[in-house]
## 1
Amino acid sequence: MSAPIAHGGGITGAAATFGGRPDDWLDLSTGINPCTVVLPDIPARAWHRLPDRHLIDEARRAARDHYDSGEILPLPVPGTQSVIQLLPRLIEDDRIAVTDERVAVTDKRIAVVSPTYGEYARAFTSAGFAVHAVDDLAAIGSEHRLTVVVNPNNPDGRVWPTDTLIALHDRMKAAGGLLVVDEAFGDTDPALSLASRAPQLSNLIIFRSFGKFFGLAGLRLGFAIARGDILARFEDWLGPWAVSGPALSIAGSLLRSDVSPIRGHIDERNAGLHAVLKGAGLQISGGTALFTLVTDARAGDIYTHLCRHHILVRKFDYAPDWLRFGLTPDPAADRRLGEALQRFER
Amino acid sequence: MSAPIAHGGGITGAAATFGGRPDDWLDLSTGINPCTVVLPDIPARAWHRLPDRHLIDEARRAARDHYDSGEILPLPVPGTQSVIQLLPRLIEDDRIAVTDERVAVTDKRIAVVSPTYGEYARAFTSAGFAVHAVDDLAAIGSEHRLTVVVNPNNPDGRVWPTDTLIALHDRMKAAGGLLVVDEAFGDTDPALSLASRAPQLSNLIIFRSFGKFFGLAGLRLGFAIARGDILARFEDWLGPWAVSGPALSIAGSLLRSDVSPIRGHIDERNAGLHAVLKGAGLQISGGTALFTLVTDARAGDIYTHLCRHHILVRKFDYAPDWLRFGLTPDPAADRRLGEALQRFER
């Protein structure tokens, strides 16, 4: 077991150190939409019965139409984390032809375009793979059996154009490898998504997150988009009824709803956060609509200062001058953050 | 990938063959309590935020008190299915010392006391293990690295006394093996549970189902009770946030509630079902409070006859004279089942 990664959402731990009731903290440590969507009605049977084929199929069709994945019906999974954990097993499964004679089957090298979400490196390292953290797609070679690109990237918001990723896919495929594109933060900029191209890209796996954009991270729901035999393997390993009935029911409704008000609300909150950060003289160095990255030599001190004001943001061991700010839920929270930042001793 | 097992809950498929709207079918094909519990209030943050440590810890403490597992805090898992899938990986993990020199490390034999829930054999077969289906605990030998006992057993309701299972555990442990006791249907007879003994039984793993007894199978929630390093391995492989916030929140409430009304309701429904089956001249050959097994040479014909009346029960490929009836939700359903059975041509 490798050491667990400190993700956002650890309000309990922060409150234990800095005091305050967890409910009174302002949690800006995640990239989850903080604006409450109206939950659609959940039929009683979604709670009480095992998720039936009808419920699963309806969520898959809604996801296909929402993500525009053509003939591929996205596979619902209990959070993309659950399929990240399965990637090492996937590329070691000899029923999935991801390697050819140019890659020795004993070769356990994969590439992760970094820095990025830490669970990919953790899952592969834990399974005995050598993980190459590359910062440039040119560093990916035929020795890599799989490459992970998070697009847009977390935490810096770096984006890769569709054509660049298709060229990378073709290069991976020619060497018998797989390309994983994690579009967890892709909902606010659908033009970046490779989903509509997935039916023609046999060695591509796309992960989508449901909870971040819709502000329902507690649901544990994501989707995998890939060719049929890869999705069948994931489905087999996750076992029957991997996703809860309420999650499937809610997804079936919300993925068919008009999401433009949600996008509008996120953009409004993002503008509010940017105004606060700029007002405090902080330098915005990246981000997506759902989070903002600040680069500051005093990042560690700002982090601790905000904790003393019971505001949790995200810091990074590997980049001590970075802080990631999730969206504030409302203008009152903007003011609270702004006032706390004003009190920081410069 | 081995072929999927046809479990209960497949109303969509049955309706496609025999007609009718799925909602109009009477689903007696599962062992899930059909009586609706009142859902406790779910705080908004359980839906919207990643499940925080506080929510997880509270559910674990409630489960410890409910299952009486002493110093062991049961691990919440997204359905026991999710940890069944991990058992092959567990006994191949060289950090878990489950074998000693008396068992060759290349030996891939496990025992499943059978017939029983099919997913154990499927998970191990799929991982390259030889699964010995034994019908008697005496047939379990030192060559078996792991034994599975479902207690009470599904579908025949067979029970093993606590002392018998402890002796089996000690025998497995002496040979370096593990004992898995699946208590998915154990809630209606807590005296059968090994949970209170688990802290003293180092090579025991207990699985508990939350959804069956509470009638919330759609939630996808179960608990694993075992020594710390085994639970840590499961937790690591499932990854962070494996269980949804609403499931943790509901479990934290309901596991602390008075469950005697639920037991009473289940017993009442069980009596109603038994009266109908006996009234139809069927021979009850086993079961638990949550399902009843009937043995009848005409089982296949009865199954098809009931399907024509849009009532789904469970049949078994390996025992063509068995039918399993789940609980009817109310007296009206008793009458509907009774009338359909009366029309069966004898």
## 2
Amino acid sequence: MTTSRLEAFSDGVIAIIVTIMVLELRAPAHPTWAARAKVGPVFLSYGLSFLVVAIMWVNHHHLVHAVHEVTARLLWSNLNLLFWMSVVPFVTDFLGKNYRQPMAVALYGLDLALCGFAFYLLRMELIRQNEGNMRMAEHHASVQRKNLLSVILYLLSLPLAYVSIYASFAIFVLIPAMYFLPEKKLLSMDEGNP
Amino acid sequence: MTTSRLEAFSDGVIAIIVTIMVLELRAPAHPTWAARAKVGPVFLSYGLSFLVVAIMWVNHHHLVHAVHEVTARLLWSNLNLLFWMSVVPFVTDFLGKNYRQPMAVALYGLDLALCGFAFYLLRMELIRQNEGNMRMAEHHASVQRKNLLSVILYLLSLPLAYVSIYASFAIFVLIPAMYFLPEKKLLSMDEGNP
Amino acid sequence: MTTSRLEAFSDGVIAIIVTIMVLELRAPAHPTWAARAKVGPVFLSYGLSFLVVAIMWVNHHHLVHAVHEVTARLLWSNLNLLFWMSVVPFVTDFLGKNYRQPMAVALYGLDLALCGFAFYLLRMELIRQNEGNMRMAEHHASVQRKNLLSVILYLLSLPLAYVSIYASFAIFVLIPAMYFLPEKKLLSMDEGNP
Amino acid sequence: MTTSRLEAFSDGVIAIIVTIMVLELRAPAHPTWAARAKVGPVFLSYGLSFLVVAIMWVNHHHLVHAVHEVTARLLWSNLNLLFWMSVVPFVTDFLGKNYRQPMAVALYGLDLALCGFAFYLLRMELIRQNEGNMRMAEHHASVQRKNLLSVILYLLSLPLAYVSIYASFAIFVLIPAMYFLPEKKLLSMDEGNP
């Protein structure tokens, strides 16, 4: 299997994930202000998940670019990541409809933590492939630390949801912001050595 | 990230958007004339949105063709556009089911205005990349004026919906017509300098 | 726009059409024999539409292979075809749930007639492009005749549905069979001159 | 038709199949423990089907790699496989909602048996193409034996479901495990002769 095949399939799945979430946005039967108010949180949770999945897509692209050979371990690490990403539309809908319920907030945090951990495992395999390359190793180690931090923060959002859902929401907004900002650096690096 | 990757992902998302809208066309349980009459507006709104998204796809293709390098700004401008495009199936369904409600008409106009504005921002970044090229600059400036006009018209459809929904519908039909006609010119231009 | 881009986008849309139809197959809440009996016609209509769309995909592939340049007319003829194909999941579900209602049968026939006519228009544009090539012209003329025959038969299924739905079903089964058989000849021809 | 076109279309369909299954995971209206308990089996059946379809995707990829020419027979064998794979989301949802009903368990086993048999037919065509190649013939014969075994086991799960659903579930878990383990060997072989 070539890297481009792996990437094309992953991209297909991610494109579908990002788009089908909108199917959960059901048009209210009677467009009153109350009905619109109910659509609000569903829409916000959709927007947040769109951003999170878009960031994952960009990161996944950079990650796959560094792949030397598609081993069985890499293939299944990738499928593991796609599985947890494919659950995002479900937890997003669940959160949008029950955004005041700690369980819905915790479930959302749990799936994103599992996505983050799947990314961690996938990159572990990548690091093994790039063992000789010192410059890349340093870069990977720095990304892994950030990845681990986001997993810990997402896991923290689980118990926090039962204390205050707003604290969990703060984490959900903080992590994309954290990933969004240094994206430029990563991208320029990618351009530097294609 | 290469231009072809950006285009392939965008195309995937757009292909899904254009196709999933039909899922909102629910077959009535009892196929009476009354039930068919209810499906009518939903079908018409689907047809209109299919045309609008198809035009966006063609324009997006021409736009991406002029991209020199995929900067972070371009990447996120594109994801911003895809986000507002992904909301089209929702506002389409909302319009089809409540086509006499000003709020549904206004919401449809608002999303298309946001799509148009996202196109404007994306092209702004492109213009920055093509700064030296005088011939392209002139072409882009002309497309941007037309783009801005359509955004203003779509925004106008919001207050108009509360006066007369038919005035808003006239705008919704006018803008695709406006884009549909000069398409040939654009296409021939694209063929002239590949 | 290149032929491969047109084909990739069309393939994406067709792949989604063929797959989302299964979403209409709702699992009955209580798996009794009566519930299973109700799923039966929906499943059969899904199977028939899968076959019809698969044949369209194969034919579309052969057609696009003969394209010299993607003109605006060709682009919009293709989008017109994709629109009527995207309605197939809706008419399929409608037929599966109301297979004894003449209106549902007629609507199914109407959409397939419109798909066939869209194919006819698309090939008309192609014939214009291949005007000099005598060998291709003869091949196209023969395919167009068959295409026109299938459109007429599908249109015939509309009034027939109000006489006997079984006569319409016979047409729905006959046309795929008619297309399925000479497929081998077409394919071998395609292999002969790549 | 080229092998890459066949593969791209198949991949598109498989990516959609694997992702739309999650749409059946409906968020409960009231997130109580009882509601969560009901989501449990649906989620487990989704996870199992994700694994099964992922294994099919990997095997399909290896299979298509050995294709010399896309004959009509190969094309339709492949479409036959995609049809039965496209039914997986339906039987998965049916199983998840009625996991204690023998009929739901049997239907799941039946569809996977039909998928396995479609793989068998597809590889039969491939073996015909590779008739001269002794080394590949041996490899194919070994894969076919394993394929046939899994079809027989899936068929066995049908009557077993009416004796004990747990025996059928054991088969459903056993077969992916059986396929999952020797994947590495296959993959390394693929790398050995690209």
## 3
Amino acid sequence: MSKLSLYPVTLDGSSVDEKRREIKNYFNNTNTLYEKVFEVLKDDSVFYEKSEITRHPMIFYFGHTATFFINKLINMKIIDKRINPDFESIFAVGVDEMDWDDLNGANYIWPKVSEVRAYREKVKELVEELIERLPLTLPIREDSPMWIILMGIEHERIHIETSLVLHRQMPLNRVKSISEFNVCKNSATAPKNEMLNIAKASICLGKDINHNLYGWDNEYGVYKEELEDFKVSKYLVSNSEYMAFVNNNGYKNLDYWDEEGQKFLKITNATHPSFWVMVDGVYKYRTLTSLIDMPEDWPVDVNALEAEAFCRYKSKKDATTYQLPSESEYRAIYNEALLEDLPAFHESRANLNFYHYASSCPVNEFSFNGIYDVVGNVWQWSRSAIHGFEGFKVHEAYDDFSTPTFDEKHSLIVGSSWASSGNLIMKYSRYAFRKHFYQNAGFRYVISNAKQEKKEDIYESDELVSQYCEFQYGETHFGVENFAIECAKIASKFAKNKTKALDLGCATGRATYELAKSFQSVEGIDFSVRFVQVGAKLKSDGYIAFHTKEEGELLVQKRVTLEDLEYENLKERVSFWQGDACNLKANFHSYDLILATNLIDRLYNPKLFLESVVDRLNSDGVLIITSPYTWQESSTKKELWLGGYKDENGKEVKTIESLKTVFKGKFELIHLQDLAFVIKETRRKYQHTISEVSVWRKI
Amino acid sequence: MSKLSLYPVTLDGSSVDEKRREIKNYFNNTNTLYEKVFEVLKDDSVFYEKSEITRHPMIFYFGHTATFFINKLINMKIIDKRINPDFESIFAVGVDEMDWDDLNGANYIWPKVSEVRAYREKVKELVEELIERLPLTLPIREDSPMWIILMGIEHERIHIETSLVLHRQMPLNRVKSISEFNVCKNSATAPKNEMLNIAKASICLGKDINHNLYGWDNEYGVYKEELEDFKVSKYLVSNSEYMAFVNNNGYKNLDYWDEEGQKFLKITNATHPSFWVMVDGVYKYRTLTSLIDMPEDWPVDVNALEAEAFCRYKSKKDATTYQLPSESEYRAIYNEALLEDLPAFHESRANLNFYHYASSCPVNEFSFNGIYDVVGNVWQWSRSAIHGFEGFKVHEAYDDFSTPTFDEKHSLIVGSSWASSGNLIMKYSRYAFRKHFYQNAGFRYVISNAKQEKKEDIYESDELVSQYCEFQYGETHFGVENFAIECAKIASKFAKNKTKALDLGCATGRATYELAKSFQSVEGIDFSVRFVQVGAKLKSDGYIAFHTKEEGELLVQKRVTLEDLEYENLKERVSFWQGDACNLKANFHSYDLILATNLIDRLYNPKLFLESVVDRLNSDGVLIITSPYTWQESSTKKELWLGGYKDENGKEVKTIESLKTVFKGKFELIHLQDLAFVIKETRRKYQHTISEVSVWRKI
């Protein structure tokens, strides 16, 4: 075993105590390795710099993996005390460059590195204690509290890899080499690439729910495909092979680039791969912390757009069609290579898990039945956009891990790299990035008849989100008016000033837009990115598309545009953010109105929200709460319900009375009414609910 | 280990193969032992006799435990082919003497013993094969298919015990002794009973959901009680001790008997315990297959009413208050006895699991820390009526195992007997019988200050059943009329003849009563006894009581009587039965009307129902189907849906079209309309659904 990185723990076993020890070792190893990655930064000042303008400074990532544990544990009601609410909001979101990630530096006062280090230590102690004492039966399953610990660990493993990419993108004078991360010394002339035959095969993708290794939600389910014979390149494309493309005017000839690729060229002015550096007319090669002579036989690091451009260039040159392999074709290659999954696969056989190098190595160093680097060295871009397999179900603890990437814009990378470990090096893992992103990724090519399907409108695949789209943007039933519109009307009637409003628990965002008819600026916040992305998509793409269920599995497709809604002039007034109503980031303040629709009975700590909401409002600001008070233990622990129970004296406690008590001296109740809403489940089945609307003016 | 009966298998373990072997051995041992119990019957003709007028003949029980496997496996969609639909309906229900159990012999043509034996063999082969091949991960949990196998095994273990009681009640010339069931030879003068102190204690009942032995649904959950000091009899009450009561006019003096006890005396004319037989002026004692001299030091076998009468007699004599122990007091006794649960407890330490005898034995033979027969020998009646513990949840595969007994009429028996094995001898098992039932049961008494609480109205504790009570008997909402009444009106309008109607899927029975306004006789059938018992209770007790949810856990109690509903003159026209619409017993036929409300999309095989329903109707008979067509895989495997999917050509299949196709040549569609219904979940949350009502006349 490599001394740097342990293999992940299996979910089954015969001894619970032994399993706790294994998890603890694996957690500590992950934590140590992650902190090691930050030793590459020259000094503390570098933590406040960005290597990519579209990303947070390094300090964010340093704190992020620790706060992830706490936020998930709170969310799943495994713990009920935060360690540092402030850290746990500012380090919470902004990993991917999504519309709803707040990356505006002005909104953050970053803490000191030493403070974050101390915080990480506290989280470590808590997690170690939880590993000791959480209920545990084997095998560990998705609904086990220990699954959340494994999720935190594997999440940190991902950031070990992605942080190394960010650090590799830092200026050389901002990083330093450390002894544990040694660069490969082997390099020679690149071997000539050639095409190998892969026989036709029935491919079945997807991991069994009872598999004995941790998996992210996108890995489970089933997908079957029949493949014809195809050919694959023996080696990854080397720097040398790619150089021919660069030298042949590759980055100038727009025929090689599709629309997205041309946009990439325009924005970046790229003329060669990102980790090539021209010094005195010669390309040098950037490793994690150094610049070395071009290793011609190492794989080229490119993004998907560059890889596709190379394929178009080579297709033209050879008068045949090369393309990136699909996800299924990659599996056929994997099978042909006679590879085994962890833990049977020994890490010494490939350039991964930090076993050999902290860099790439020659493309002809690791062979698997004659095909090289099928796993390890660098990730390989596929031509497949990521989707959920049949039977896909989001994991409730991390419902935005996958679904925001099911947008036809995220391409799968396969095979893992020298910086991959944990789930990243498992057979069934599935990671996808936008095509212009850099990872430790290169590519190989195939000649195959299979075409890449390109979808037109992207329909919501998420049933619950579709149901809410129909609820907010669809038809009305039983004569009950659209709830979002009615709420916005009430807000408009009672709010005095109309500068800035907050739609908290905005779901798919309809009320956010409706509020923008009377408020100059409206922010929509929801806990779930699955919902937030709908309002954001309407703004950015000008439409949303979803299904409504008619009977059984029969669906009707619906498409709603900004024009249909007459929102063209409102879209600049709205913005959408992911956020936790019980631990809202400090920059959400100074509202004239806060609308909290059907929110309070879904919060893990509603009182925390009620006590803090007053500070977010301007004087004379108005708070509107709507709720059917459907308290349930799956959302809120019973001891934190605001109503719907009997107190110690046997007296019935109703929610509206608790609101009055909590708001005493802070708010005055100025209006109370019922307001019905109807949510369609099928053409014949509806939820018909009567919210109570209470309107409160800040005293 | 005893050679006759194996200990139950644990749910955990490290080897799946080894676990399959253990389960197979345990299944085969159970099956063999059960068939052994029937060897006690003298010849095949005895299989068609009853030992109790209120019960089925023996052949029913012989077939019942085998059909149980098939019915549960079908119901849980683990298998989809029946072995013998006829056997699987006639051997399905009628174990307990419930209102809804059909015990009318005229409704059955019992098969030959050899046919049932051959059937049992087929079931055995199938179960053995399933044990080999069903998916299995350890530990086995409630939602594992293997749980259903264990359920079938433990169900047969119960019938081993109860069949032995029935056989013991057979005339002596109808039974024969067999070598494996040996009667205890020890007997002497009974020891004088005395009272032992049990110190006050905090008792916590209820089994953890992760316990490593199989449990019935009623065992799980939590119940806590603080007990004061109390005293308990050292021995079970012996035949000798009980004799004093009999000789002191015990069965004549009505002061010793409560209302239910007096009713028992009146019906049975009992003057002594059932297994005492007066021969030439002397009491002899009936064992399983023989009559022996009265073993004075063996425990007396009595029902709960007799045990209570004895306590009243002894209380008067000693001028103190004796009563039966409560469930919690029994646990305190169990703890004081320093007992361990299986498998640590060795069966040689008590008279159970057929280890020593196939009969009782002296009350001073097995001591546990000075208290005798805390487990084993005979069951001991408690004074506690059985209820679900906090957190009780019915197991979906056997939803009428427990809830019909939560009626204040079923008393817990504790401690197990010589004929107990499997779950029956586990610490956490809970079995309850009506007080006049005979089991291998006696009693011990306590002196304690704790009182037995007697409840007045029995409110439905089952949330779903309560919801349906409110739906059928409660208020209307959103201006939508009561669905059951509207359906009955439509039925009355379209049916030509009005002699006999069937309300199939009757739920809590409202439409059954409403149909009785126009039909002379109406049968209500539901798959779930949880529902059937509501209509039956309204008929027998004249009222039903249930809760409706207002907010969170706050409830409103409701009570509805026959008078309120003006059903006093209708109740003789209705009857309620448990039944499976996909495998209805042959005696349900000759209807002028069949009403199937919101049924077809909840059946495991709707087509089977549609194809057979025509034969149940008289010529010109009318079938009414109402359904919102809410197809879901949890009720019906997708390949058996009648609609709501796309066929192999991509064409949408709607349910109404499938109905027309299936009914072609059998029925004519004479009316089609929508009919809404509203089900209240809380004061603010409702299901609002639009059924399609199709009315079909038999051609």
